[in-house]
Amino acid sequence: MEHIRNFSIIAHVDHGKSTLADRLMEFTGAIEEREKKDQLLDTLDIERERGITIKLQAVRLKYKAKDDQEYTLHLIDTPGHVDFGYEVSRSLAACEGALLLIDATQGIEAQTIATFWQALEQDLEIIPVINKIDLPSADVDRIKEQIADVLGLDPEEAILASGKAGIGIQDILEAIVNRIPPPKGEENKPLKALIFDSYYDSYRGAVAFVRIIDGEVKKGTKIKLMSTGKEFEVTEVGAQMPHMTQLDSLKAGDVGYIAAAIKDVRDIRIGDTITDAKNPTEEPVPGFRPAKPMVYAGLYPTGSTLFEDLRDALEKYSINDAALTYEMESSPALGLGFRCGFLGLLHMEIVQERLEREYDIELITTAPNVIYKVLTKKGEEIEVRNPAQMPDPSQIDKILEPYIEANIITPNDYVGAVMQLVQEKRGVQRSFEYIDKKTVLLRYDIPMAEVLFDFHDKLKTATRGYASFDYEFKDYRPGDLVKMDIKINGEVVDALSFIVHRDKAYRVGRNIVDKMREVIPRQLFEVRIQAVIGSKVVASARVAPLRKDVLAKCYGGDITRKKKLLEKQKKGKKRMKQLGKVELPQEAFLSILKAE
Ligand code: GTP
């Protein structure tokens, strides 16, 4: 174990994590220069064809250090997006150290700080790396100042590097060996392994990526998953080197994978502990919690997709994605569908896209919403995951909404613009701090619902792309919230209802009907759109009826043009939903996202 080092690379997006990881693999011979381009890609293609994820979750590297000793290094990947914050923390829990990568031209950004804190919470040895020093605009002194002032680390310990130009790679490897402590743990104790990642492999079944804390696991070991008590017999253990490579065993301190003919990836929960069924450990690794969805949306079949098709696709898909939850729901407007829970908006987009692409499903998504907690006058607490199910206002005592804690880093020229934006989003400022002469770190508490919509885009626009943003869930707080319904030709369309702050209700109502008027195609009759709160109409608009047939313009002459028009119509139809007589496009359901 003295010769094992377990580490992650943490960084803000685009600071060069993948490039550096490739370099480390290349330098240590895990991939040859030639193989990198040809063979590795070839195998990855085959693996892809076989339906295996190509992501490298934890790569084992061999490194002969300057002290002439050979070390085994495990590079553990962390997901790069805030939606997967809990998974980041589990990956870090499998390490003793982390390389904190900072782009020398950008400096510290929001995710740099967020991941730095996560690494500190796990007590990791942090090695700052100033990356991309090959660029002429690299400003190493400024970054060093930030490392000292913002992170409180010794800037002289930072390694200057360039993943792209191959500068500082050996220094990084030496620092990993010399500064990061070897794992602790005992081989003779009962098996205790932390699951930090998982995926589904059509050949091996659900595979767990683990850090062995104590004990040993090999083919034939009867294992138990501690959160559920389910037992399986191990069929294979191994490590990514970087290909999946079978090994005789994994021992305390090791990182690798365990396959046990597990059919459902939901049995392998990230953060859970694997132990020996016959000789179990007493205590699981602390901190396990099941992934909790933060955002909900309705998914409804459309076009030629039937409800059963969508159900089958969701069943199959979720074998691969343990974080997705779904339950059947029925909407008077849209019929039968599913209310799905996602970790965040990115997760939602991924699921939606994969269902469409890989399972050939046509679907309509309703606008995403957060989970509200409603305290009724009778003293009950209800969780509302679908705005249409909000109780009648006469029964409501209080509505609580989730808040996030946000870090925003911006050049000081844009501080005014950021403050104005956050104020519009009902944010409460917590702190204001210069991290160097030209850069400010702002901390806010903001209602999560406000960030779901278009916050990130607006922040980027307001700061010409310079600000960065990161957040985590904080708590639930009461808000003066109301439910707004949308009526189409006099009928409430339940799938379009949403919750909005009372002060913004008129503006949002106005914008949403205007937006819907733009996206609803003209039909043979007039379409009236109204935003209402209870029985009160807040805003309304109408889509005038269609006068002519689309094809009438073509006089039957130009056949290609005719075809094109028909195709265009067909495409447009693809994501439409028939509501009684009215056809609504997907955009209409997401109008709320653009209504502020
Ligand atoms: P995500 O995977 O999106 O989080 O990005 P990442 O952090 O893995 O960054 P990636 O390695 O993909 O690099 C981002 C961009 O920076 C790419 O265009 C790289 O070519 C470039 N880049 C990475 N490292 C260096 C470097 O050392 N020098 C220079 N000049 N460019 C670099």
Automatic annotation (TrEMBL):
Gene3D superfamilies: 3.30.70.240, Elongation factor 4, C-terminal domain, Elongation Factor G (Translational Gtpase), domain 3, P-loop containing nucleotide triphosphate hydrolases, Translation factors
Major site of localization recorded for this protein: membrane
Membrane topology: Peripheral membrane protein
Keyword flag Membrane: yes
PROSITE patterns (UniProt xref): G_TR_1 (PS00301), G_TR_2 (PS51722)
GO molecular function: GTP binding; GTPase activity; ribosome binding; translation elongation factor activity
Keyword presence, Protein biosynthesis: yes
Domain of life: Bacteria
NCBIfam families assigned: lepA, small_GTP
Function: Required for accurate and efficient protein synthesis under certain stress conditions. May act as a fidelity factor of the translation reaction, by catalyzing a one-codon backward translocation of tRNAs on improperly translocated ribosomes. Back-translocation proceeds from a post-translocation (POST) complex to a pre-translocation (PRE) complex, thus giving elongation factor G a second chance to translocate the tRNAs correctly. Binds to ribosomes in a GTP-dependent manner.
The protein's name in its UniProt record: Elongation factor 4
Native source organism of the sequence: Persephonella hydrogeniphila
Origin organism lineage: Bacteria, Pseudomonadati, Aquificota, Aquificia, Aquificales
